[in-house]
Amino acid sequence: MGALQITLGVVGVAVSIVAWIMFGTGVYRMVRIIRLGQPDATRNGPFGPRITTLIKEFAAHTRMNKFRHVGPWHWLVMWGFLIGSLSWFEAYGETFDPHFHWPIIGNWSIWLLLTELLGLGTVLGGLALALIRQRNHPRRADRQSRFAGSNFKQAYFVEAVVIVEGLGILGVKAFKISSGIEDPALWTSFVTKPLGEILPASTVAVTITALVKLLSGMIWLYVVGRTLTMGVAWHRFSAFFNIYFKREDDGGTALGALKPMMSGGKPLDFEEADPEKDVFGAGQVEDFSWKGWLDFSTCTECGRCQSQCPAWNTGKPLSPKLVITQLRDHAYAKAPYLLAGGKKDVTGEEVGLTGDNPYAGIDVLALAEADRALVGDDGGVIDPDVLWSCTTCGACVEQCPVDIEHVDHIVDMRRYQVMIESNFPTELNGMFKNLENKGNPWGQNAKDRMAWADDLDFEVPVFDGELGDTEYLFWVGCAGAFEDRAKKTTRAVAELLHIAGVKYTVLGPEESCTGDPARRAGNEFLFQMLAQQNVEVLNSVFEDREPGNRKIVATCAHCFNTLANEYPDLGGQFEVVHHTQLLNRLVREKRLVPVAPIADDVTYHDPCYLGRHNKVYEAPRELVGASGAQFREMPRHGDRSMCCGAGGARMWMEEKIGKRINVERVDEALGTAPSKIATGCPFCRVMLTDGVTARQNDGKASEKVEVVDVSQLLLSAVKRRPQPEPAPGTESLPATESDPLEADAATDKVPTGTSLPTEDK
């Protein structure tokens, strides 16, 4: 151990002390700040399923690998950071003594091979991630880049440290070999041994390279300790906790049911709620739970949510990534004020700090943040156009590799705006009034709920007080009862159930809106009113049935989701299936037998609340196949399917900014050159039909393209209808006036859809 080694070693230790203190202080500050959020005891357990999910997600990179050509590189970097930390700490000894290595394991061939792989993998992974970021830089792809709005300096800093760390691991090992300190087998050091043979023998080089390896990590610790909003760095630690404390303890994404409206860590009881004491949604950043603050802190700014967001991809101001980062920056800027005890009431008056000079010692920037509205078009953290552009489709939540719960946070802000501020798009006024007074968004009379069945050639049973041998309650839904296009779906399903001999009944005038549009629009009070009314009705219908035998079939994906996932919290335990699931089962059981295959080219649009929110992907596709249609898949399908634009109560709001989402989706569907676009949700059917009509008016779609429900395709295949006899000497062609479901409509020869961005843009 010479003077140089001692000097460099002391320098390394001195810098490390400063860096570790700064980092430790940063951890302490971050924990204090995250705890400013509201309590949420629902995240505490059970331990087993949560730790299993954590291990699976980080070890196998199950969520990161949703972008398959990014996941492997990040996997290398992650393990390089975790296990490579042992090699990094080894540098403390190597700066003082070039011959130093870990006792026992330091000479093991397996350890030498592992460090070789970690060093090489870290370098390659860091370079690959930097290259991906550069290739998809916003300057090259404008809004289509998922990195638009991300902090590139912070990202490149982190990636540079990763690469230097990897080079340091390989460099120290190579110089040890060149200096004769180590002589490993080639299979354990297939890069560093050949490199060591051409490097000069120098123990000083070992020390210097070890110091570089050490200092790069210390600089990283110091910088991130000072910059608590550097999510691209902090996620290395916080992601583990964010995954463990995710909403669904079974490992599922935070989709399906919305998070209940919470106050003080408990679901809010409207009968006892006090607006002056209880939290109604999120009107200030401190109204979010501590898990919300952890979400904000964990965002890596990778932009996967942004790349999948239908609003962002059609020119709207909403980016799920930017919503989270804006909330993060605001939260951390406001934190000194909150930590000092600051608090404002609903009128904006200070109630937390008192005295002659209550703001003494609080940073002026923190006070400025405390005066900002959380939502507002005049200096608010989140612009109203951003808040109300969300369709709650869940694409952001589905893609986030660190399990951030964007939709829950957005709806919490909507709840405050609706119930406390009464500040929401004017179009929602009519919908809210119709739901409250008429029990449906269209304002139709309950007595007309059975009009859809008027001219059917069989009787549709309406519940009359006794279920008898009825197997299913058929939940028609508001759209299925009142919307002309959705009525066709209702009729098709009723006829198929009749053909299959399924015993079912409907509620008729007793049915009311499930409350989905009210809840997604933020009117939780109205949702509770409607839901409790429905649960009371349904429980009375099924009062003689065991919980496992209370079966409901629904054609609306939104009704299906609400009945299945949200009513249990209100005492409604039912076995709910979507009509595509039931019909597919009936086909498999040969109770529905397609006898007249349709000759159409069909593409299928996944409804968000059927697909992403409830993972029903295969049943409707199998039904399309069973109908005999030629199936054509859109580029964005399954869990990456693009929204139709109707969710989140957007069905009742005007779309004034950017390209219409339904037109964008129709353009993609037309790109498969279909004769029919099939779906499994009345909202989707309305939006897609409007989009097709718009494109037909533009001359960009064939007049023969139409939007149908999957059940209509199946009905056409199951129910053979008599065809007119062809005249002698002529070929049998579909009659021009025949049912369009029976005709073999010509397809477009040339795709007309818009070009799509690659998955990494």
From TrEMBL:
Segments traversing the membrane: 6-28, 73-89, 109-133, 198-223
InterPro entries per record: 4Fe4S_Fe-S-bd (IPR017896), 4Fe4S_Fe_S_CS (IPR017900), Cys_rich_dom (IPR004017), HdrC_iron-sulfur_subunit (IPR051460), Helical_ferredxn (IPR009051)
Region named Disordered: 717-761
GO CC, any one term: plasma membrane
Polar residues composition bias: residue spans: 752-761
Domain of life: Bacteria
PROSITE patterns reported in the protein's UniProt record: 4FE4S_FER_1, 4FE4S_FER_2
One MF annotation (Gene Ontology) recorded for this entry: 4 iron, 4 sulfur cluster binding
Domain 4Fe-4S ferredoxin-type, chain residue ranges per copy: 290-320, 378-410
SUPFAM superfamilies: alpha-helical ferredoxin
PANTHER family found in the cross-reference section: IRON-SULFUR-BINDING OXIDOREDUCTASE FADF-RELATED, IRON-SULFUR-BINDING OXIDOREDUCTASE FADF-RELATED-RELATED
Protein name: Fe-S oxidoreductase
Organism this protein belongs to: Amycolatopsis endophytica
